[in-house]
Design a protein that fits this description.
The complex is a heterodimer of chains A (about 250) and B (about 450). Chain A contains 13 helices and eight strands. Chain A is an alpha/beta fold. Chain A folds into two domains: about 1-115; about 125-240, Rossmann fold (3-Layer(aba) Sandwich), CATH 3.40.50. In chain A, helix 11 crosses helix 12. The longest helix of chain A is centred in the C-terminal third of the chain and has 17 residues, at about 190-205. Chain B is globular, with a radius of gyration of 26 Å. The model of chain B has no long low-confidence stretch (mean pLDDT about 95). The structure holds iron/sulfur cluster. Iron/sulfur cluster (SF4) binds near residues 304, 310, 333, 362 and 369 of chain B.
C-alpha cells in the first residue's frame, strides 16, 4: 500500500525520532511510504487561536502536498482532527475534500486499516502509563471515555498489547486532559502547567515508568513539566514503542 | 468594561494549595458520582438524545410555546409579565414589590436574577433581600457572587465558611462543625420567611401545556419562599420552556444525576396557581436570548438546563475556580454564553479551554460546548478582540508555516539560536512556556534533514 507520511511541524523540528519511527514502522508493516519534501504544518496552531485567515496558507500548502495520495498518515491525533474537522479556511475544492477524507492518524490506520495486532520485533519490559490525547479520545473516537457509558476498545492499548513485556499502569483519572491544548499552553500558562503536573503525578502514583502517547504535543508538555519538577519518569511516542526503538 | 483576565485570576487561585486541591477534588467527586448514576440508567444516552430533541423542538417554535404558556398561566390566575432585558425585569419586580408595600423579600437561587443584578437593585431601593439557599447565603454574607450555578460556594473550605459566619452571624470563632454552622444559618434565616411580604423563586422548567413552574432544590427553601409570604414572583428565562407535562420526567431524571450525581433533587415543586388569598406573578425575561436564538453556531446553548455538569468536569474550571471567569456564568457554558453579553469583556473566556471535549460528553442536553468554544475564537479573532501581540504572533506563524522556504529558514535560524544561546537567555523570550516547563532538547537535525541525508531527496 502506498501512503504519504505527514510529519507535523513540531515533530519534524523537535522530535525527528518520532517521524523516523513512524516511517520505519509503516515500512515494516509493508507500506510504501512517500514523504512530500515541502510539507510544513496543517494550519492547526493558527486555527485553534481563532485565526483561520492566518491558517489558510498552511492549509492550502498541506493540500497541495498531499492531494495526490490515497492515504495520508500522521502520527498526531490533534493534527489529524484539525484536517478532518476544522480545515475550512480555504475553499472546499475536490482536492481539499479528498485530503480531509483520506488523512488518518497512525494508531487508527494501523488498527483499523492495516488491522495489525502483533509487533514481534518490539519488546518493552516496563509498566507504562498510556495517555490517550483528547483529540484521540473525544474527536477520533479511539477509546472509551469515562463520561459515556458506551464500551469501546482502546485502539492504542490494543496495539500496545501486541508488544511483548508491556504492562499497563492504571491512573486514577486516565482520560483527564493533560493541559497542553495548543495556544492554551501559553495563553493559560498557570492552569496548563498545573494540569500537566497533575497528569504526570497521577501516572507516577500508579507506578508508570514510561508515559506513552500517540500525541507528541501532549508528551512535550508533560515531559517539560516532569523535568522541571525533577521527576525521572520517561516519555515515548507510541510509534517508537511499536517500532521497537525502546526494545 | 475591561477584558476579564481569566489567566491572571487562575494564576492567583492556584497559588493557594489547600483551596486548589479541595476544589478540584470536590468537583471531581461530583463528576464521578454523575458517572455512576448515568451508568446505572441503561437508557442514559437515549435520554440525552430525547432531551436535546425536545429542547431543540421547543426553541424552534419558541414564540408559540411562550404564548401557550402565557395563556395557560393566565387561566390559572397567574399574572404574566414580559421583560426585554434585566432593566425591565428589575423595574417590573420593583413595581410589584412597591405596590404591595414590601420591605423584606426572601428568594431562592436564580442565575437569571444574578444576570439581571436584581439584588443590588432592590437593596439600593431600601428592600432587604434574603438569600435562602445555603450556598447562596454564604456568598451573600461574604459579598461575593456565586462561583458555580448549582453549588455557589464550592470554592470555600469549611474554615472559610466558619470565618464568614463568625463575622456576620456571630458563630463561635474557629467553629468548623458543619451541623452547628448550618443550624446557625437556619436560625438566622427562618424568621425572615415569616417577616417577608414577598418571596421570589427562579424556574427550572416552564410547562407550556399547563402553565406550571417547576423548581428543583435540595433544601426546600424555594417552597418556603414561594408559600409563606402572600406574594410569589417567579423570574424565568424564556428558554426554560418545555411543551408538555409528560416531557418533564425526562428532564427531572437528567438534571440532578448530571448536576450532583444524585437520582433526584430532594424537592421538585410544581407551582401552578396562586395559593388562596395570595398572588402569583411570572416575569418572562429575554435579556439577549432571542438574539442568541438567531445565531447559527450558538443558538443551541439555549438548550442548557443549568445543571453545572460541564463545570464539574472541566479541568480548567476545577483548577481556576468559578470566580476567575468574572461573569455570571463560569465554566464551559459560561465561555459560550458570556460573550453574547459583552464580546470584549469576555473575549478571553473561550481561550480558557483546552477544547478537550469532556463538557460536551457530560452535557445532558447534548450542547456541543467545545465546538462552540472553538467557534467563538474565530468570532473573537475576526472582531479584532485578540490582544495585538497574540494576533501578530499568529500572523508571523501563519506566514512562516505557509511557505516551505520560509519555514526551512526559520528552522535553521531557530535551531542555531537554540543550540548556542545560554539557557537563561533562551528562556527569556520563551518565558511563558518556560515558567513551569522545560523545553525539549534541540535535536541535531530535523526529520526532513535526516530524510534527505538517509534516503536521498528523490527516493520515494
Ligand atoms: S451546558 Fe449542559 S452541562 Fe453545562 S450547565 Fe448547561 S445543561 Fe448542564
Amino acid at each position: 500500500m502506498k501512503v504519504a507520511l505527514f510529519v507535523p511541524c513540531f515533530i519534524n523540528v523537535l522530535y525527528p525520532k518520532v517521524g523516523i519511527a513512524t516511517l520505519e514502522l509503516l515500512e515494516k508493516l509493508g507500506c510504501e511510504v512517500v514523504v512530500p519534501p515541502d510539507q510544513t504544518c496543517c494550519g492547526q496552531p493558527m486555527a485553534t487561536a481563532g485565526c483561520h485567515d492566518d491558517a489558510a496558507a498552511a492549509e492550502a500548502l498541506f493540500v497541495d502536498n498531499f492531494a495526490g495520495f490515497e492515504a495520508i498518515i500522521g502520527p498526531s491525533a490533534s493534527c489529524v482532527q484539525h484536517i478532518r474537522k476544522h480545515l475550512f479556511a480555504i475553499a472546499q475544492t475536490d482536492a481539499v475534500k479528498h485530503v480531509r477524507a483520506h488523512t488518518f492518524e497512525l494508531v487508527e490506520f494501523v488498527h483499523d486499516i492495516l488491522a495489525v495486532r502483533d509487533f514481534p520485533w518490539a519488546r518493552l519490559d516496563k509498566l507504562i502509563g498510556l495517555h490517550n490525547s483528547c483529540s484521540a479520545l473525544r474527536s477520533l473516537d479511539q477509546a472509551a471515555t469515562s463520561e459515556l457509558p458506551e464500551q469501546r476498545v482502546s485502539k492504542a492499548r490494543t496495539l500496545l498489547e501486541g508488544v511483548a513485556g508491556i504492562r499497563f499502569a492504571e491512573p486514577k483519572r486516565p482520560d483527564e486532559c493533560c493541559g497542553f491544548g495548543g495556544v492554551f499552553s501559553v495563553f493559560e500558562e498557570a492552569v496548563s502547567v498545573r494540569m500537566g503536573q497533575d497528569k504526570v503525578a497521577d501516572h507516577a502514583q500508579a507506578g508508570a515508568e514510561l508515559i506513552v502517547s500517540a500525541d507528541t504535543s501532549c508528551l512535550m508538555h508533560q515531559q517539560g513539566c516532569a523535568q522541571r519538577q525533577g521527576r525521572s519518569i520517561g516519555f515515548a511516542h507510541i510509534a517508537q514503542v511499536l517500532n521497537g526503538d525502546l526494545s | 468594561m475591561s477584558r476579564v483576565d481569566h489567566a491572571g485570576h487562575a494564576r492567583e487561585f492556584l497559588r493557594d494549595e489547600a483551596h486548589r486541591q479541595f476544589h478540584d477534588q470536590r468537583l471531581w467527586e461530583l463528576r464521578e458520582k454523575r458517572d455512576a448514576q448515568s451508568r446505572a440508567v441503561p437508557e442514559w444516552e437515549r435520554l440525552r438524545e430525547a432531551a436535546s430533541a425536545i429542547k431543540t423542538h421547543t426553541l424552534s417554535q419558541l414564540a408559540d410555546y411562550l404564548e401557550q404558556f402565557e395563556a395557560a398561566a393566565r387561566a390559572n390566575g397567574v399574572t404574566v409579565h414580559w421583560a426585554r432585558d434585566g432593566t425591565e425585569h428589575n423595574a417590573i419586580v420593583h413595581r410589584l414589590l412597591a405596590a404591595a408595600g414590601v420591605d423584606t423579600l426572601v428568594k431562592s437561587k436564580s442565575m437569571l436574577m444574578e444576570e439581571c443584578e436584581l439584588r443590588p437593585f432592590l437593596e439600593a431601593r431600601g428592600i432587604t433581600v434574603m438569600e435562602t439557599d445555603l450556598g447562596e447565603r454564604i456568598q451573600q454574607l461574604d459579598k461575593q457572587p456565586p462561583s458555580h450555578v448549582v453549588v455557589p460556594a464550592v470554592h470555600k473550605l469549611r474554615g472559610d465558611v466558619s470565618e464568614v459566619f463568625h463575622h456576620t452571624l456571630g458563630t463561635e470563632a474557629g467553629c468548623e462543625d458543619v451541623p452547628t454552622l448550618a443550624r446557625a444559618q437556619r436560625e438566622h434565616t427562618r424568621p425572615f420567611y415569616a417577616r417577608a411580604q414577598a418571596g421570589m423563586t427562579g424556574a427550572n422548567f416552564l410547562v407550556a401545556e399547563t402553565g406550571a413552574v417547576v423548581v428543583c432544590t435540595n433544601e426546600g427553601n424555594a417552597d418556603l419562599s414561594a408559600n409563606v409570604p402572600p406574594l410569589h414572583i417567579v423570574s424565568a428565562g424564556i428558554e426554560k420552556l418545555i411543551p408538555r407535562q409528560a416531557d418533564l420526567g425526562l428532564f427531572v431524571r437528567l438534571l440532578s444525576r448530571s448536576a450532583l450525581g444524585s437520582p433526584i433533587t430532594q424537592y421538585t415543586s410544581h407551582f401552578r396557581a396562586p395559593r388562596e388569598g395570595g398572588a402569583m406573578h411570572i416575569v418572562l425575561v429575554d435579556n439577549g436570548r432571542s438574539t442568541r436564538l438567531k445565531q447559527d453556531r450558538f443558538w443551541s446553548s439555549l438548550k442548557c438546563i443549568r445543571c453545572g455538569a460541564c463545570m464539574n468536569t472541566c479541568p480548567v474550571y476545577r483548577r481556576s475556580g468559578g470566580l476567575s471567569y468574572g461573569a455570571v456564568y463560569p465554566g464551559p457554558i459560561g465561555a459560550v454564553i458570556d460573550p453574547t453579553f459583552n464580546l470584549h469583556r469576555y473575549s478571553q473566556l473561550p481561550y480558557a479551554s483546552t477544547l478537550n471535549g469532556s463538557c460536551t460528553q457530560v452535557c445532558p442536553v447534548k450542547i456541543n460546548l467545545h465546538e462552540q468554544i472553538y467557534a467563538w475564537r474565530q468570532v473573537i479573532a475576526e472582531a479584532d478582540e485578540l490582544p495585538p501581540a497574540r494576533r501578530r504572533l499568529m500572523r508571523v506563524l501563519g506566514r512562516t508555516l505557509g511557505d516551505p522556504a520560509r519555514f526551512r529558514a526559520a528552522v535553521r535560524i531557530g535551531g542555531a539560536l537554540r543550540r548556542r544561546l545560554p539557557r537563561l537567555l533562551l528562556y527569556l523570550p520563551l518565558n511563558t512556556w518556560g515558567r513551569g516547563r522545560e523545553l525539549p532538547p534541540m535535536p541535531k537535525e530535523t526529520f526532513q534533514e535526516w530524510y534527505r541525508r538517509e534516503r536521498g531527496r528523490d527516493k520515494p
